[in-house]
């Protein structure tokens, strides 16, 4: 009965259908509005993700090509004299493998393009762009002044197309720029062609409001759901605009809101269907959100994979450049410095250094470093002893155990506690040390620091292990070359010196033999009383001739053996002179006097020769107090000094590393010469010594007869005398001994003088660590 009443009321109440219709329409409109807003928000999110993906692709690809230009520039800088053909071959490889370059060029410091790839094709276009009125000049000026890579804004190329220039400044032996031009429409088109679902979105790239690229040049001004993002790099600002194409919107546009709207107008009976459709719409939304999350994950995986690939690419480049340096460099220090520079500049490490074991074998001495060191190594004090806390880090462990060691996170690794604060302050987050093994023994280590935790994966460690092995082999080769060259040089010098000494002494003894033969001939004309003496002299001359031949093989022994025969001859001649004095005629006595004088001079020459030959190469230096050497010399010369009334004054003399015996010879000959070649004045000799750079400079000044400058070189030659036998005694060997002593100590000797104004003999002795001044 009640239902009948309700139906009756509905039948006759005309307002109810209207009210139900209005309520249904209003509810439908609310639902339609909510669903439309949700779809709009999801589309906006998809467009934002696409714009971010495009931004990352553009940035990675531009940086990839910029890095290629930088490597090209660094190779050009290393060349002493760049060859155009070699450069064009290098640039041609990049051009052939990547046609996104319109042209690659070397531009000189006056902003004129000299070399281009393809050869000469775009030289005119480049030089038109580099006119003073064109903005490209500003790009090169900024790169030159800032010494960094600069990317220009949008330029108008010769064919009217939009483009831009990347400029890499050069420094060192080669100046100017490595520059590349890009036609922006083609560059970005090729870059974005690999993007998934590129056909679903329209992309435009702007630089400071100027259009550089449009994926849809015919598109109008209507850009629904457009999203803008900005890239700042290499001194230039670029904006990216992305929006979905109409076909994509039609494909993803849901008809559910319209269906609900129509359904609401048709009948309220379809309300359940509308609810069902709403549920379907919500499910579609969840699916879309899931797709968004999946896309984000794929993007993250791609970024990680590309980062890992880039690191491996850089390490392959490091390995190649280090091997190139190994072939070219033969000095260990230069090789260490070059390896560290390559590791930082090409490998992307924060800092790299090479250390070697010190003499004691318990600590490590840094030999070379590059990067953000900032005094870190000065305070590191790294040990190789496991008992020391400073010997448990990667470097000490690598040297001690002969294998690589990795520290994945410096902030938490207890082994890094002695260096943690200093390392983190310089941006070091992970490190790796690789031993350098030379001839089966660990000689040092290569240590690298990265700005990221857990930076070193297994593939990188494998490449870096190969790198350290290459460096170790290079060190072995360099050490072997150095030792071989040193041995060859020592052998050549020893042989030449021995040949010169033997030849020189042989020539001197031949001269003595000729003089002796002449004197023997003169004696034959003497009285019959000295016939026996002449016979004896001839016998001794034959014996001396035999000894002279032996001198050619061993000078010192021959000179020593001559002493005894000459003493016998001298004794007989002097005995004849005493026994027959006044019994022979004047000529005979004169001949005997000549013989006595000749034998004495020969004894003196041989004695001086022995002294000269004893001045051999110094095997080991000792600590010599020059004050003591001078005291000993003055004691030996006391009789001569007292006879001549000579005065010897001196300033404080040093204690140095030298041969005491040879220094005594040096002082004895210089002081003796000053007294021997004195003037009419009382001899006055002043001796001084002073530091000059890394050596001691000694000066012996006298007031003697002086020396003509034209004889400055001659006086140091053996047997060279400037005065006759009657004027001043001597053999002409004293200053030769001085020269030999000074040269044995690694120094040099010279004289400054004028006739009748005295002479000053200077000589130098290189300083050693143990040298110090006397008190």
Describe it.
With 775 residues, the chain is of the alpha+beta class. Among the domains are: 329-456, Beta-Lactamase; 488-614, no CATH class; 622-766, Histidine kinase-like ATPase, C-terminal domain (Heat Shock Protein 90, 2-Layer Sandwich). The protein starts with a helix and ends in a 9-residue tail after the last strand.
Number of helical regions: 20
Mean pLDDT over the residues = 79
Overall outline: elongated
Helix content: 40-55%
Share in β-strands: 15-25%
Q: Provide the structure class.
A: alpha+beta
Describe the largest sheet: 6 strands, antiparallel
Q: Report the uncertain regions.
A: none
Q: CATH superfamily membership of the domain at 622-766, which one?
A: Histidine kinase-like ATPase, C-terminal domain
* Structure summary, number of beta strands: 22
Distance between the terminal alpha carbons, to the nearest Å?
Answer: 139 Å
CATH architecture of the domain at 622-766: 2-Layer Sandwich
**Level-1 CATH class name of the domain at 622-766:** Alpha Beta
Q: Please name the CATH topology of the domain at 622-766.
A: Heat Shock Protein 90
Radius of gyration: 48 Å
Quick structural gist:
The protein is an alpha+beta fold and 775 residues long.
List keywords for this structure.
about 775 residues, Beta-Lactamase, six-stranded antiparallel beta sheet, about 20% strand
């Amino acid at each position: 009965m009640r239902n009948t009443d309700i139906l009756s009321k509905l039948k006759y109440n005309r307002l109810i259908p209207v009210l139900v219709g209005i309520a249904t329409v209003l509810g439908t409109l609310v639902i339609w509005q909510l669903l439309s807003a949700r779809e709009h928000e999801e589309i906006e999110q998809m467009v934002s993700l696409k714009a971010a993906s495009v931004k990352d692709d553009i940035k990675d690809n531009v940086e990839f090509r910029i890095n290629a230009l930088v490597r090209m520039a660094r190779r050009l800088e290393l060349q002493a004299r760049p060859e155009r053909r070699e450069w064009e071959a290098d640039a041609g490889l990049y051009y052939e493998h990547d046609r996104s370059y319109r042209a690659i060029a070397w531009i000189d410091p006056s902003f004129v393009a000299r070399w281009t790839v393809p050869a000469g094709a775009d030289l005119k276009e480049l030089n038109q762009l580099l006119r003073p009125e064109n903005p490209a000049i500003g790009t090169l000026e900024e790169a030159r002044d800032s010494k960094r890579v600069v990317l220009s804004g949008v330029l108008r190329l010769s064919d009217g197309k939009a483009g831009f220039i990347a400029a890499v400044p050069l420094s060192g032996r080669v100046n100017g720029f490595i520059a590349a031009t890009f036609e922006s429409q083609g560059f970005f088109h090729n870059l974005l062609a690999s993007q998934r679902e590129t056909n679903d979105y329209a992309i435009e790239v702007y630089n400071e409001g100027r259009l550089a690229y449009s994926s849809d040049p015919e598109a109008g001004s209507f850009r629904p759901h457009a999203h803008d993002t900005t890239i700042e790099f290499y001194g230039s600002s670029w904006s990216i605009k992305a929006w979905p194409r109409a076909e994509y919107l039609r494909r993803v546009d849901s008809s559910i809101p319209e269906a609900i709207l129509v359904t609401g107008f048709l009948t309220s009976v379809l309300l359940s269907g509308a609810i069902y459709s709403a549920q379907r719409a919500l499910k579609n939304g969840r699916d879309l959100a899931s797709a968004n999350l999946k896309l984000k994950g794929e993007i993250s995986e791609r970024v990680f994979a590309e980062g890992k690939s880039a690191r491996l690419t850089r390490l392959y480049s490091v390995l190649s450049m280090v091997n190139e340096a190994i072939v070219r460099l033969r000095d260990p220090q230069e090789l260490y410095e070059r390896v560290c520079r390559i590791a930082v500049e090409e490998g992307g490490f924060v800092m790299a250094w090479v250390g070697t074991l010190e003499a004691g074998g318990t600590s490590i001495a840094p030999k070379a470093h590059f990067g953000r060191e900032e005094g870190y190594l000065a305070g590191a004090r790294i040990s190789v002893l496991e008992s020391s806390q400073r010997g448990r880090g990667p470097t000490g462990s690598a040297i001690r155990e002969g294998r690589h060691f990795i520290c994945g996170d410096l902030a938490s690794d207890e082994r890094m506690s002695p260096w943690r604060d200093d390392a983190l302050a310089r941006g070091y987050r992970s490190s790796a040390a690789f031993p350098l093994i030379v001839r089966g023994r660990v000689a040092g280590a290569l240590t690298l620091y990265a700005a990221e935790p857990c930076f070193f994966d297994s593939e990188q460690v494998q490449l870096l292990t190969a790198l350290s092995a290459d460096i170790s082999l290079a060190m072995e080769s360099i050490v072997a070359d150095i030792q071989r060259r040193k041995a060859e040089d020592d052998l050549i010098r020893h042989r030449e010196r021995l040949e010169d000494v033997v030849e020189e002494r042989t020539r001197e003894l031949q001269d003595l033999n000729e003089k002796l033969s002449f004197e023997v001939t003169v004696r034959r004309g003497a009285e019959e009383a000295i016939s026996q003496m002449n016979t004896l002299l001839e016998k001794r001359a034959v014996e001396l001739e035999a000894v002279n031949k032996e001198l050619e093989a061993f000078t010192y022994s021959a000179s020593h053996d001559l002493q005894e025969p000459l003493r016998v001859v001298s004794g007989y001649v002097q005995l004849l002179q005493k026994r027959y004095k006044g019994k022979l005629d004047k000529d005979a006595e004169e001949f005997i006097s000549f013989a006595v004088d000749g034998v004495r001079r020969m004894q003196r020459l041989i004695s001086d020769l022995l002294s000269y030959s004893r001045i051999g190469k110094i095997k080991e230096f000792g600590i010599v107090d020059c004050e003591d050497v001078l005291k000993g010399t003055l004691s030996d010369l006391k009789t001569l000094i007292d006879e001549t009334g000579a005065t010897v004054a001196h300033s404080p003399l040093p204690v140095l590393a030298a041969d005491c015996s040879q220094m005594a010879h040096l002082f004895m000959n210089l002081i003796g010469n000053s007294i021997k070649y004195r003037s009419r004045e009382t001899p006055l000799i002043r001796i001084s010594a002073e530091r000059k750079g890394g050596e001691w400079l000694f000066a012996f000044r006298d007031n003697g007869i002086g020396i003509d400058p034209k004889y400055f070189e001659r006086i140091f030659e053996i047997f060279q005398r400037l005065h006759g036998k009657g004027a001043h005694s001597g053999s002409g060997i004293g200053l030769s001994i001085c020269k030999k002593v000074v040269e044995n100590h690694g120094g040099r000797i010279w004289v400054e003088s004028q006739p009748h104004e005295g002479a000053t003999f200077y000589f130098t002795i290189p300083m050693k660590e143990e040298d110090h001044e006397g008190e």
